[in-house]
Fold these 2 entries.
Entry 1:
Amino acid sequence: MLYDYKCPQCGKQTEAINKIADRHTNAPECHGKMQLFISRAPYAYMPMEIRYVCPVTRTGITNKRQRLNVMAKYDLVDANDIVTDKSIDRQLKRKEELDNIVASNRPPEELTKQVNKWAESSL
Ligand SMILES: [Zn+2]
């Protein structure tokens, strides 16, 4: 990995390639060992962590908190959170199926099975 280092005494900056495990112990020398510092956006260091690029900001979204912050800042809504007639119908149908199972006094395994089926179908 490519790391940025800075001398704590004179402020000189340099880049060096190091293994993750050696990034501190194998730091370049200036007035003693230089210290790691972050000069770029963190995701530049971890390209594999980018899950997707936000279509609004064009930045890589790497985690849930960042995603929530961007959504709040730009007043965005998750498509999965939009309630449609279809999703209401589906929930009503599920409630009916559940009520039927409860009313029929079938064993609890039936309920578990049904709930698992719903969980799979909504993936
Ligand atoms: Zn120095």
Note: The beta strands are 2-6, 13-17, 29-30, 32-33, 35-37, 52-53, 60-61.
Entry 2:
Amino acid sequence: MPNGRLIFARRPAGSLTVDTFRFEESEIPEAGPGQVVCRTVLLSIDPAARAWMQARTYRERLVEGELMPGHGLAEVIASGSNVPAGAIVTGPVGWQEYALLDATAVRTVEVRSVLSHYLGVLGITGITAHIGLLAVGQPRPGETVLISGAAGATGNVAGQLARIHGCRVVGIAGSSAKTTFLVKELGFDAAVDHRSRSFADDLKSACPDGVDVYFDNVGGPILERVLRAMNAHGRIVCCGGVSQYDTQDPAPGPRGVPGLLTTKRLRMEGFIVHDHVDDWPAAHSELESHVAAGRLRVIESVIEGLDRAPQALISQLKGSNLGKCLVRVGKDPEALPRVIRPAE
Ligand SMILES: NC(=O)c1ccc[n+]([C@@H]2O[C@H](COP(=O)([O-])OP(=O)(O)OC[C@H]3O[C@@H](n4cnc5c(N)ncnc54)[C@H](OP(=O)(O)O)[C@@H]3O)[C@@H](O)[C@H]2O)c1
């Protein structure tokens, strides 16, 4: 049986297109000492993958001809390590059906929920929302928390967490269907459509007392607009800048920095979730308890088939997804281990 893989074939000039990628087949690898062979079940589709194509970010710029990198959930099918065959793991499987990885690169999942949750709300996405909102943003009950990309994977969790922590929550999303969903289904206090001509006025009406914490997933002109709405001593959590990923020519700015930071005494802070691994277990268990109690709704868009991963990323960058965007690469294992831990 061959191993289907998607290669980063050509650096995009302008917006991402499917011919950025090339499909190829290889042999399924064998596990050497300290290694695992993983069968990919689900792939996380992340807008940052577009940014990796363009420039050095928190990782090296992608090189044409390399396997498209990506995070996924997989079943270990062969092992030369203490992570046993049958274990469910998450890790950097890449856009392929079978991955050979160092056992140290994967995390064993103690399966207590639907598998897809371990890439979304109970995985890096949910943990990013948790750490960004609570550790970086430090919202207090009653404060106004504004979230961009609010109907996306990270944003919807950050918004629901802010609501759970007693804040007034306002979302920014890219359609009226999404803004209605945020208010009616996820309990946001208000939501505004950034593609509407009345966005600036709508934002003012939705935040009559200003903004105390801005959880920013998008950067660009929306960040510039929100800077003016911030209250004194507000916090801006720079989680990402998706509005500037799908281009060769990111916009400079925003204007208002440093002037508004100074006059309003704002704190604007970026973070990368991988710098906070010591905080992951506590964040995970809080998220797990909110999901189990029904306080935190899980929103996912799952696309079938590895061959559709390129289109999934293209569409996500245009805002087609609601919640976490995933690609199903293979079936769930027939018998799911409740808990498989690495051998001591
Ligand atoms: N700091 C970290 O450690 C960390 C970790 C993970 C992710 N991130 C970042 O978190 C952000 C969200 O990632 P995600 O995985 O949750 O993706 P996502 O929000 O599920 O998907 C991206 C969303 O961005 C919005 N968007 C696209 N173009 C836009 C534009 N020009 N202006 C405004 N919004 C636009 C679209 O929603 P609309 O249709 O609603 O506009 C789209 O659905 C990204 O910036 C990502 O890089 C950071």
Note: Residues 46-48, 125, 128, 149, 151-155, 173-174, 178, 194, 217-218, 222, 239-243, 271-273, 316-317, 319, 321, 325 surround NAP (CB under 6 Å).
